[in-house]
Amino acid sequence: MQKRALVIGLGIAGMAAAIGLRQAGWTPVIIERAPERRRGGYFVGLMPEGRQAAVDLGIDGHLHTRNPPDGGNAWSLTRRGTREPGMGFLHQPGDPAAVLRGDVEAALWQAVSGDGAGAEPVEVRFETTPVEIVDTGVDVQVLLADARTGAQYRESVDLVVGADGLRSNVRRMVFGPHEDYMTTWNAMICAFQLPEQVPSFAAADSIISARSGRAVWVFGLADRAPTVLLTYRTDDVAGQFTGSPVQRLRTVFSGMDDPVVRHALDSLEEAPEFLFDSVHQVKMPRWSSGRVVLLGDAAWCPNLYSGMGATSALRGGAELGRALRDNPDDLDAALSAWESRLRPFITKHQRIARLKQQMFVPSSRPVEALRSVVLRLAIKARQRRRGSVPVG
Ligand SMILES: Cc1cc2nc3c(=O)[nH]c(=O)nc-3n(C[C@H](O)[C@H](O)[C@H](O)COP(=O)(O)OP(=O)(O)OC[C@H]3O[C@@H](n4cnc5c(N)ncnc54)[C@H](O)[C@@H]3O)c2cc1C
């Protein structure tokens, strides 16, 4: 009989896991708390491991990418408000693929819902959450709540995959409280889509205005207006969630009066949706316990500064499928093999994220100055390699 898995969360990690499970001959069912799919979203750079995982999961053909030719021009704004050549996110080694979170979501959804390639569609139940998870050793008994009907019902599965994001309920129920696993980075982010490019810049330009403790990043894309990330450091994370986020951001960025900050804050006032959240990493000694496994941000959130969350979620799902295929009769062995393959990769990128955070938003004036010097050298080297200078 085919083994059944309950995947909790219809994000990138959940759908990647469901496809991996299906490739391994399992029958996955996905439950999602929200009433419908979450589309759109912010800029995501997919690294080579993420692009390879997309191939392994068979979604690369559905994935819409938005890289401007040659990575596009990137500009840095100086403290005087003048522009100079900069290093954009897409200029880092590995040639990231530029996508929106929604592009990855859409590609995965096409595969999950049956893409005409003969694969069975995965059953997806919206407005459904787990209430209780009991691993009996033989199966997992999950009590589920359907918010539409108010009904609760019990289901028996062979494996539960918790892919329910940074503040995972599965992690809390099975492994322990958030405080045990979520590390706080004393930083905040706000990400959203701009309706149009910052005035006087070319449509696909990327623009960075980074000062000690606060920064704005505009991610230029080939075929639509850029997305923007406002990020800042704070010692009072809880306090950031009181009052209006827009007002809070206006206060934090006051005095940083350049055209990018102005355009971002004015656009935020009109934005139909935005993400405003604190920054964390999730660190766990082990990602599975018996027949329950965590995957994606729930297990290892490397955070946005790492630029590896979507990449590692895709890879995690693809590798889970491979480990289950390689160990069809031994779930423990499969989960151990999966974790051994993945953990060095995750640990490495969680560590590098601290350094990358300094590139996103320097922690002090001296670091800001050092960052500028390092970037100027890197830009010169890049220009020498390409034999070109951006045109403003
Ligand atoms: C601003 C920003 C920029 C980023 N940039 C990059 C980048 O450049 N490169 C990169 O690789 N990554 C990037 N990331 C990270 C990346 O978006 C995530 O790591 C990735 O999407 C994996 O998320 P996930 O599927 O694990 O979790 P999520 O996307 O949080 O999905 C979890 C899902 O579970 C559902 N859920 C939650 N609780 C329950 C419940 N109790 N029951 C049922 N369902 C539930 C949620 O509704 C949601 O649909 C960025 C993230 C941010 C915020």
From TrEMBL:
It comes from the Bacteria. GO terms for molecular function: FAD binding. InterPro entries: FAD-bd, FAD/NAD-bd_sf, FAD_aromatic-hydroxylase. It holds the Pfam family FAD_binding_3. Residues 5-324 form the FAD-binding domain. This is 2-polyprenyl-6-methoxyphenol hydroxylase-like FAD-dependent oxidoreductase. It comes from Pseudonocardia cypriaca. The lineage of its organism: Bacteria, Bacillati, Actinomycetota, Actinomycetes, Pseudonocardiales.
